[in-house]
Structures are given as structure tokens and as C-alpha cells.
Amino acid sequence: MKSIVLATALVLAAGAGLADTIRMGTEGAYPPYNFVNDKGDLDGFEIELGNELCKRIEADCTWVKNDWDSIIPNLVSSNYDTIIAGMNISDERREAIEFSVPYTPPPPSAYMALTPDAPIDGVVAAQTGTIQASHVADSGAQLLEFATGEETIDAVRNGEAEAVFADRDFLAPFVEDSNGELVWVEGHEDVPLGEGLGIGLRKSDTELKARFDEAIGDMIADGSLNEMIVKWFGPDAKTFAANATSAGSTAAADAPAPASN
Amino acid sequence: MFASCSDPAALNGLAWLMCYLTSGKHLLFYASFGTVILLLVVTAPLALLFGFGGALAARSRITPLRWFGRIYTAMVRGVSDIVFFLFVPIAMDQGLEWLRSRVFCDPSVPVRQGNEFVVCAAAKLPLATAPQWVHQAYGLSLAVAAFAVVFGAFAANVLHGAMTAVPRAQLETAEAYGMTDRQIARRILIPQMWTFALPGLSNLWMILIKATPLLFLLGVEDIVYWARELGGSKISTYAYPHPDWRLWYFLAILAFYLALTWLSQRVFDRLTTRFSRGQATAAGEALRYQVAP
Fold this sequence. Notes:
- The structure holds two protein chains of two kinds.
- Chain A folds into two domains: 2-105 and 195-233, D-Maltodextrin-Binding Protein, domain 2 (3-Layer(aba) Sandwich); 108-192, Periplasmic binding protein-like II (D-Maltodextrin-Binding Protein, domain 2), CATH 3.40.190.10.
- Helix content of chain A is 37%, strand content 19%.
- Chain A is built from ten helices and 14 strands.
- In chain A, the strands form three sheets. In chain A, strands 8, 9, 10, 11, 12 and 13 form a six-stranded mixed sheet that branches.
- Chain A is globular, with a radius of gyration of 19 Å.
- Chain B has helices spanning 13-21, 24-59, 63-78, 81-104, 132-165, 168-176, 181-211, 223-231, 246-276, 282-291, and strands at 112-113, 116-117.
- Chain B has a two-stranded antiparallel sheet with strand order 1-2.
- By secondary structure, chain B is an all-alpha fold.
- Chain B starts with 12 loop residues before the first helix and ends with a helix.
- Chain B is built from ten helices and two strands, in the order H-H-H-H-E-E-H-H-H-H-H-H.
- In chain B, a hairpin with a 2-residue loop joins strand 1 and strand 2.
- Classes of the chains: A alpha/beta, B mainly alpha.
- Chains A and B meet through helix 1, strand 1, strand 5, helix 6 and helix 7 of A and helix 2, helix 4, strand 2 and helix 5 of B.
């Protein structure tokens, strides 16, 4: 304990005057958005994006892994300063935290199952606390919640659930890799949901939000964000329209919003 | 790790498995076994110390101290372990940060703002600028504190019972020789108490070993975290794609815990023999006839 206090004191003395440090929380279990690669390092679209944004706002960033189900409580109790973890912007979450402008267009969600005619009003798996989970609950299906995305897919594989509902970009690699075992549910392979992914911030961190908003706006304007989206999600992924401002894309997302409440 | 592992997709069979099991992520998994052992090695003596404190306090002639000892054991024993494991680290973390914020920050700014707990950068514990290992060590020490508080209370109860079990005549004899209270405790009470305390303490140690997966609840990356992370089915985003292998990883952890408890039981068996020697108990009598027929 004493040595820890001493170490932090030393670090304080050494770190004074450097760029400010931002601790960025992520789940590290949601490929290809964020995951721990085989070297044991964090990797993925959001890690690359987060590092680029940090460079643009001239801050030192360190990544912190945190389980999905406690990711918002640990942000508000200041264990880290941002959430970049494939989190959809929604009104329900806005009650607890603030969001940056979206860094992706509203990502489509999709149902995946073992057969294309699987019922989506039976038992449907979804990750706890996601907008997909609330959508399933509202749809009248029986919701089966899991702590991580991988477990929802395993539930479909072993027959525990009839289908899984999640971000389409998260499910797509599973469909491709499964040699036909896992397929999209016909007619439900592209469900618009949410307002886009945003960086979660404490409501009191207005200055940090302004810096991130500006940096994301820059990246949309110079096309580098679109390049990154295509790199991680393939050429078919939804990108920001050429001249669209970030404000425009939020407005466009308003239509399907009721489902996410 | 090896040069031949640079392209895992081209490998198969045993070569693939060797590369897979020596990937950076697996090395972190192996290191996390060390985390569990470290927690046990640090927590056990600390809990025993808490236990001694609690037991001596509960026997004390000073009334407030006696109350403190009794309340501590009764309270911790009466509340669910998991509640304590969740409560102690958060309470300690926020308590320390609050104290530091009164010293290092503007005291007129409240730490609770709406649903947020915010202290200024200088009061953060550890500081945001501290390297990641400091954060991890801090998290682990909070976990150690929680484990020590909980297991200390149980140890206090075991030790208190063992001290009461020492025959009164032994202590009276020591008094008759003119020993002070402290001398009696050190020379007569504590050496004789071990034989009564050992079964209870060995139970506690076993429970402590088996409770270490609760580290995972506290956000410490222990063997359960890595087993879940590594065992889950991996798609081609990863260098080593594989189906759901959690069963195998959990089986490995199961073997680890069994080995650890089996080894502990052997150590406790030897200790029991050691502490029974020369004692006026049935086990001590049995030993006497065994050694000198």
C-alpha cells in the first residue's frame, strides 16, 4: 500500500506538464469492434479509432478492459473516462451518461439462427443491457440474456435459444465462418436500430465531449473514418455519406428510434 | 513466441497447437495462475492476523474492545460473502479517493454530482497517469483487503473457540507459577490452542482456495477470466480460430484447484501430527503410544 502511494507520488511528479491522460474503457470481447487478439493486446475497429482520436485531441490514452454489464457504473464512478465499446446511443442510456456524436452510421442489427425460417418470437438470445435486448423484450419474444456476445451465439449453437439478435457487423463473421451452420433469419437480416455508436462520457465531462465531437467531425470530413469502417467491416458496410455532417446522420437515425427505447 | 508461429493459418496438427498454446494471450493466462497463488499467499497470513486480532479482542477484559471483536465476527459471518467482496473494494476505493479529494482538491466541490462520483485528477487513486501495472496492483490489493476482512472474521471465530478449548487447569497452573497474562498467552495458551484450531483453519484455507474465482467479480483478470476469454469460440478475426473450447479450459482449472487442495490437505495432515505431539488430547495420547511402545 505504502509503495503504491509512493509510486503514484513519483508518477505525479514525473508526469506533471505532459499531455492529459485519458483512460478509455472497453469490453475487449466484441470482435471486430474491440477484442483481445492472440498476442494478448486489445485490437479492433474501436481501438484503432480511439488511438487516432487521441492523437487528434492530443491526449495520452490508456485502455482499460471492463465487463460489459458494469461498464456504465464504472464510468460514472470514475474508474475510467470514456466508453468505446460498440455502445449504441439511446435515450435510456442518456439518462445516465452523455454521448459524443456518433462515430458510425446507425448500425443494422440482425437475427441469426440455425435455419433461415427460425421463429423470432420464440426464445431469442441477446447480450445483457444492449438495445437489442430491449428490442427483443419489446417484441414479445422470450428474451435469454448473456454477459458476452460469444455466449449468445453458443446458446444458438447448442439449442438453448432459437435465434440470436445482435449487431449485424458482429454476427457477420460468425455466419461466414460457420460453413452454413449459422444463417440469417429470412426477412430479419437487416433491422435498423439505434442512432449509431458513440463514445460514452460522464455528463460532467463537457469539455472532453467537445474535443471528441470535433475530432470525430474532422475524421468524417476528411474521409479517414469511412476508410477505417471499410477496413474493419468490409466494402458493404454503411459509411458516412460524402458530404453529410455528423448532425445530419443523427437526424436520419430518428426514424427507427422508438424500437430502442 | 517461436519464429515458426508467424503464420498460424499455414500450420496444422501439433505445430498449430504448440503455437496456439504459446500465444501471448496464453502466456497471460499462465501468468494469471500466479495471480491466484499470490492472492492466497498474501491473504492467508493477513487473514490469520485479523483472526488473532479479532479473537484476542473478543477475549479482552476491556469492554469496548471485546464488543468490537464480537461485532466484527458476528457482522461479517452474518452477511453474504459476495456482498462483502463487492462492498469492501468499492467502499475503500471511494473512501480513500474522498479523503484525498479533501486534501488535494477544492473542498467546496462535492464528489457526488448527480449519479457520478468525481474527484479532481490529483486525488485519483491511482493517478490516471500511473502505468497499468499500478492500477492492477491497486485492484489486487483491494481484493486482498476484502478477502482478509471476510476470512479474518471466520478465523477469529475459530481461534476464539480454540483458545476456549485449552483446559482451564493449564492456565491456572501458569498463574500459580506467577506468569503474567501476556506470558500465559504466549507460552501456554497459543501453543496449546493450535491443535484445536487446525481443523477449523484447514477448512477456512480450503474455502479460501475455492473462493479465489470471486476475483473475477472484482475485475481482476484471474484464471476464470482468461479461461472464459480463451475458451469462447473464435472466428477468423483471430489468428487461431476455433470452436467453443470452454469445457477444456474449465477442466484445466478444475484440475488446478483439485491439485492445490490435495496438496494443502497433505500439508495440514503433517501439521496436525506436529501440533498433536505432547498434547493432552486423544490425538496426542495416540501419538505417545505410537512413538514409544
